[in-house]
Amino acid sequence: MPTFEPSYIKLYESGELQRRIGILDEMLSSCNICPLDCNVNRKEGEIARCYSRYLPIVSSYCPHFGEEPPLIGTNGAGNIFFGNCNLRCVYCQNYQISQNYKAELKNEVSFERLAEIMLELQGKGCHNIGLVSPTHFVPQIVRALGIAVEKGLRLPIIYNTNAYDSVDVLRLLDGIVDIYLPDLKYAEEADGYSYSKVKEYPKFARMALKEMHRQVGSELVIDDDGLLKRGLLIRHLVLPNDLAGSRETLKWIAEELGNDTALSVMSQYYPTNKAESITLLSRHIRESEYDKVLNLLDEFGFENGWMQNFESKDYYKPDFTDRVEPFKR
Ligand code: SF4
Fold first, then answer.
1. Ligand 1, closest atom to CA 49?
2. Whose CA is nearest to atom 2 of ligand 1?
């Protein structure tokens, strides 16, 4: 297999990366970076729903080993955790950094510093740059990427998102992002509003996933070391009482993107943040609920992906060719 070169190198060399930096930067003057379309001038320090101004907020960064195996390899994913968020999930497991709005502003960093962080993670041997909750900082990330590429960044970029993304912005990420890692959350609009406080979640998230799929397709490019280099891996966090609308969500993926799309079905839900006081979300999921979702994978003929062991939460890859007991673990 030839040596992998991230797709953004070509854009950098042709000058296209610089052009996109300009377009994205301009969008912050009347912010429509995500589907919330707040139209505030973030370049002048105006704050809206995501509680974010012009500079990116980096809450932490590190080699991370809690992702799917092809993302962590031996040295870990080079995760950068961005502060604040455009969603307000009542069960957010990162709520200390995603919903601690004012406090997080103190973690604003310059574009140059964000570029340095990317290079530091590369220096530590991380296999990729994992952008965690990047949606509200896409312009800032792309600007920092331009600086980092000039200084030698060569790692694939992972876009780890809640999927409430703008298609126009995603189009500007075509050829910049190598690996899309969206979490597809709900099938019902009312659940998106009740539990993440945004309108029309399924509509916007599905449009976003179609665009991601258009860019990178269903095939995962995995190198000889088992590391994912390019592709779309859709996460689906199973919620108690089927609040994630798993059947509808998986059916939509199979029908619209194809059942060769890679999935990561997660069982790690636990009630945190405000969820303990919400009856339907106030418990862990049951093993029977998780198994029911795994059976749906079989029903819709999915062929690729990773599941979580219900007890240990370790990821494993089922034998999708064994249609009798494909999810044996
Ligand atoms: S990125 Fe933030 S300010 Fe911009 S539209 Fe979304 S929530 Fe509003």
1. 7
2. 50
